[in-house]
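FAQ: What does the model actually see?

It sees only this:
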Amino acid sequence: MTINPTFALRAWSLSGRSIMPGLAVLIMLTLSWQGWTDDQPPQPTTWPPAETFTCETADGVTLAGDFYPAPDTRRLVAPCVVLLHPIGPGKAHASRRDFGLWPEELRKAGFAVITFDFRGYGDSKAIDAEKFWSQHTPRTPNQIKSTKIDNQEFMSRYDWLHLVNDLVAIKVWMNLQNNDRRCHSHALFLIGFEQAALLGTLWMTNELQDAQRPMDVSSVRLGRIDRYEGDDLAGAIWVSMTDRLGMDRVEGALIQRWFSQLRLKPMPLHGVFGENDRPSREFWNWIAGSQRGQEKKREEPILGTTLIEGTSLMGLKLLDHEALQVKTKIIQALKQQAESLNRPWSVHKGNLEPSMVDFRPLGF
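And it is asked to produce this:
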């Protein structure tokens, strides 16, 4: 049975007892967390409206996104889910809008949800020309005057790699919302599609080792870094994952290295793909096989897998076919990942300004 924390506190108050504000908050958080363990999280009578937001990357790209906050009683306990829309060749018109009503379904399953457009996609094409071109090399003299970018102009591997900086900016935005007590950014899941899944893996790896992104700035002053921003990562689900960024295939040794680093932190990683989608199936099975030896040493489960039988559909097309129940299966996997999660809300003391990723330690 789910107990409504607001009702519980009101009943206590009517009984003539008084509670200190700090204790009241603790009770609300505890009761709200109990609601998460139920098969169905407590459903409010009204949901907070989705909010459109913008934030700026370290190199001056204005990103547009939508935030689907958890109900007021769960804002400081509900894990956050960031959805990564497809990118790369053939996806020129992709955007966060492609998720349709699915963010609302994820929210009703007990999560706060963030969607956004990667740079050069959807509504994320405006740039601060001075800031952007100080970090990037224009291909033509006239390009330096441009105040917009478009993914169809991305030519090199590095054009695609810089989308990792978008995820850095999104996490900074989430940290600021966390500190305003509007979400819980210390419990973060990602769901990425096709090439965006590989990009998400790269970003997660960077979060676990980037010296520019310590969890607590006080540790830097003491000359050491105890925890990195990646400690907020709780898990990821990759749908129809590929080994490509743009037109380039990323070296297998690099991808193995990234997954090995992610597996050093106990964190569930889950692959979803169609049974007849041979490239995605073989790639995920190869990744799982490459990690199997390390997992035996740590007595941890092999990377999770959801095989969608009888289809060769990929990416968001899997979600479009209700008969396949892919949305339901992803939500079930996500809730499984969150079952053992126990991360209390706290203020973020670092990573409140975006930074540029150094790709050299990542193998580029």
